[in-house]
Fold this sequence. Notes:
Layout: E1 18-23, E2 32-39, E3 74-79, E4 82-90, E5 128-131, E6 134-137, H1 140-158, E7 163-167, H2 176-190, E8 196-198, H3 209-213, H4 225-228, E9 231-235, H5 239-242, H6 244-256, H7 260-266, E10 276-280, H8 286-295, E11 300-303, H9 310-324, H10 329-335, E12 336-337, H11 339-346, H12 350-357, H13 361-372, E13 382-386, H14 388-391, H15 396-409, E14 420-422, H16 445-450, E15 456-460, H17 464-467, H18 471-490, H19 497-509, E16 514-519, E17 531-536, E18 543-546, E19 551-555, E20 566-567, H20 568-585, H21 589-592, H22 603-609, H23 611-614, H24 623-628, E21 634-635, E22 640-642, E23 645-647, E24 665-666, H25 680-686, E25 689-694, H26 710-715, E26 720-723, H27 725-730, E27 738-743, E28 746-754, E29 762-766, E30 794-801
Parallel strand pairs: 7-8, 7-15, 9-10, 9-13, 10-11, 12-24, 13-14, 15-16, 16-17, 17-20, 25-29, 26-28
Antiparallel strand pairs: 1-2, 2-4, 3-4, 5-6, 5-17, 18-19, 19-21, 22-23, 25-30, 26-29, 27-28, 27-30
Helix pairs in contact: 1-19, 1-20, 2-20, 2-22, 9-12, 9-13, 9-15, 18-19
The structure holds ligand MGD (2 copies), iron/sulfur cluster (SF4) and molybdenum atom.
Amino acid sequence: xxxxxxxxxxxxxxxxxxxxxxxxxxxxxxxxxxxxxxxxxxxxxxxxxxxxxxxxxxxxxxxxxxxxxxxxxxxxxxxxxxxxxxxxxxxxxxxxxxxxxxxxxxxxxxxxxxxxxxxxxxxxxxxxxxxxxxxxxxxxxxxxxxxxxxxxxxxxxxxxxxxxxxxxxxxxxxxxxxxxxxxxxxxxxxxxxxxxxxxxxxxxxxxxxxxxxxxxxxxxxxxxxxxxxxxxxxxxxxxxxxxxxxxxxxxxxxxxxxxxxxxxxxxxxxxxxxxxxxxxxxxxxxxxxxxxxxxxxxxxxxxxxxxxxxxxxxxxxxxxxxxxxxxxxxxxxxxxxxxxxxxxxxxxxxxxxxxxxxxxxxxxxxxxxxxxxxxxxxxxxxxxxxxxxxxxxxxxxxxxxxxxxxxxxxxxxxxxxxxxxxxxxxxxxxxxxxxxxxxxxxxxxxxxxxxxxxxxxxxxxxxxxxxxxxxxxxxxxxxxxxxxxxxxxxxxxxxxxxxxxxxxxxxxxxxxxxxxxxxxxxxxxxxxxxxxxxxxxxxxxxxxxxxxxxxxxxxxxxxxxxxxxxxxxxxxxxxxxxxxxxxxxxxxxxxxxxxxxxxxxxxxxxxxxxxxxxxxxxxxxxxxxxxxxxxxxxxxxxxxxxxxxxxxxxxxxxxxxxxxxxxxxxxxxxxxxxxxxxxxxxxxxxxxxxxxxxxxxxxxxxxxxxxxxxxxxxxxxxxxxxxxxxxxxxxxxxxxxxxxxxxxxxxxxxxxxxxxxxxxxxxxxxxxxxxxxxxxxxxxxxxxxxxxxxxxxxxxxxxxxxxxxxxxxxxxxxxxxxxx
Length: 820
Ligand SMILES: Nc1nc2c(c(=O)[nH]1)N[C@H]1C(S)=C(S)[C@@H](COP(=O)(O)OP(=O)(O)OC[C@H]3O[C@@H](n4cnc5c(=O)[nH]c(N)nc54)[C@H](O)[C@@H]3O)O[C@H]1N2
Ligand SMILES: Nc1nc2c(c(=O)[nH]1)N[C@H]1C(S)=C(S)[C@@H](COP(=O)(O)OP(=O)(O)OC[C@H]3O[C@@H](n4cnc5c(=O)[nH]c(N)nc54)[C@H](O)[C@@H]3O)O[C@H]1N2
Ligand code: SF4
Ligand SMILES: [Mo]
């Protein structure tokens, strides 16, 4: 069982503790935190003037006090080379989270690198290179010169097609405006790299092309809209677990009716009641359960559709809405095009839709009414929210568009209480030169690697072995190709650089791949790399990003990076300089000159070169202004200054003008066409179990920090796979037993978690976990724009062993702690 060892007393932050603005660097929500630091051999007192909270700590504090922190929020870190105490606690003044932490963000303290307290000792502290048959530490110069030299030689041989890049495109840790700009400048401006992919999909494309092509950018509302909506229509988003404090601080008040006063105040001319919610998800999530508890069952509809059938469901809802005339005629007239054609093309028979989706005709009609039926003669306000159940779902492009069709038809884009939005994953922080040269559809990069293409791979903060589709085949080929280079390298003395480069190039010509991994910890893909470069992460460098309502903040540097690690932007700068030198030495000054312009000394220099110059409103944004605007920041785009305050934009598209040439939002024809990606229907026909997959509250992403956090590893030594009681019996399983999940794509393992609410033959497995990679059984099938269907996976399951020792202490209680 998880417990905090050696902590029976925590120091009191003194009144003069340094205070830093922090945005939690995990999920999209971007909760505001404050980091308090002070000298390690001091602490504050209980008197209000003696502690940083200004509270009388000699007395019992009230239940909702902010003058409090938990052991998980605390650590001892280094600041300017000296040990200091640190407390990273949620900020009550931040409008995003109003002082709430989550089970992830509230551990920012203990997830920091600390030599004094032994946390995150896995962090990379120096550049590593492959020599003497292992990874060994070296200097930045040595490592970067090797990377630059091999990169140049590969480009000389194969053109820029030979350089394959994997890079995050998000905000938060492993991203942010500084780092996306730096990597973008290197690969899109100094070079014109085409064979590049994003962290979460195997090509360089939008995951929501569908909505963008209609002119509707995907983060178009504000979190307050969830408090103002009459109805929230939530598709494939398990927001209690994945956008936790957005759900708790902005959805729950509406469902409870506590945002009614706000509704009446802001929208006085219409009737109001507590919010309702419709959730589309094949499985009953804890979000569904929490909504039933908060709103009452009569205000919640869970449409438990068959996996991958969202599209026909949306078309059916659209059909009802159109037939009833529950549309916003004035808006359709003034701000859109193609309505009639869309309704004609997408019309479906409700009986047919019910058959395909498994949802009754009555529930389809009820959902349509809750979304669009006028209330007391006024238009109903509905917020449409979707995330990976839709985005990584069947026929992504059209399904996305089918949802936007309903939002537009009902006049819910650009209006209070509306929006048609991604719930989001990471924070955002995209600032890069044009990627137009990549083309559309973009190259399917994983397949290039699998098919022996490319000679060198640069990886920025991605661990494809855990997180890509078709991961089993990808890893097998990757290992073979990188091993070829390792064997060649082992034959020459490392110090003989000229001979080493020849050996590497020889292996590459024979089909090998040279791999460079930039990360903060050792990764699975990094095990096959030849050079590993240590990055500093959020809090160890200044970093800007925006959240799901485009709220931009600066996370201030509050601690030293581990060892020699550096912010990604400065690693890019170092690499660009080495590339310049390498091309110059090779007698190609015209190419060398393209790598000028990286003389950044700090991450702020990268920010000024990128965001400030290139993003809309960027001229108003400086670190100093962001710092002064604290954890509330402003909502992008910036439109000007009010004194020294940046003025932002609460909602997009409020003027009814959209991002198309004619400024109209374009409705889309999106007829249903079954399981669309290659091989999916055959896989479904062949294997008995749906292997639905995704996230759980405790774990952040591929567990890159959690894998060394006692609390998480103790709860999830192995990834869980939720199974119905009937399936447990049929497979001869007891709680915690080890199972193998396998199909034609590969195999993986997990721990059986009996789940009373699971439907028979519909399993749900934790994704991306180091001790069992769900992606191993995901097929390579993608849509025509190379968007994967991680969620539509079918496989067999068999028992491997009785519950191993590591899971015997676990509880297998239902995740639904109570029922409505
Ligand atoms: N089966 C299945 N697969 C999926 C998904 C799914 O739902 N199902 N979802 C997909 C989605 S939405 C996502 S976002 C991806 C995630 O896929 P990835 O982005 O590959 O995984 P992460 O764990 O988020 O982070 C990758 C690496 O970034 C490193 N990192 C963290 N901070 C920094 C930093 O400051 N600098 C650098 N250089 N590195 C850093 C971490 O140590 C980690 O090794 O997985 C995708 N894969
Ligand atoms: N705790 C935690 N929070 C996170 C993350 C994390 O790792 N841990 N990661 C962050 C990131 S990068 C991302 S992208 C987001 C993802 O946030 P979400 O999209 O909310 O998370 P997932 O669990 O991937 O998938 C959501 C739901 O999609 C459902 N689903 C599966 N198939 C279908 C389908 O065919 N149709 C519909 N409608 N639904 C389906 C699943 O049952 C699941 O409940 O979470 C972010 N927040
Ligand atoms: S909800 Fe997201 S941003 Fe907020 S504390 Fe949790 S992980 Fe961090
Ligand atoms: Mo994501």
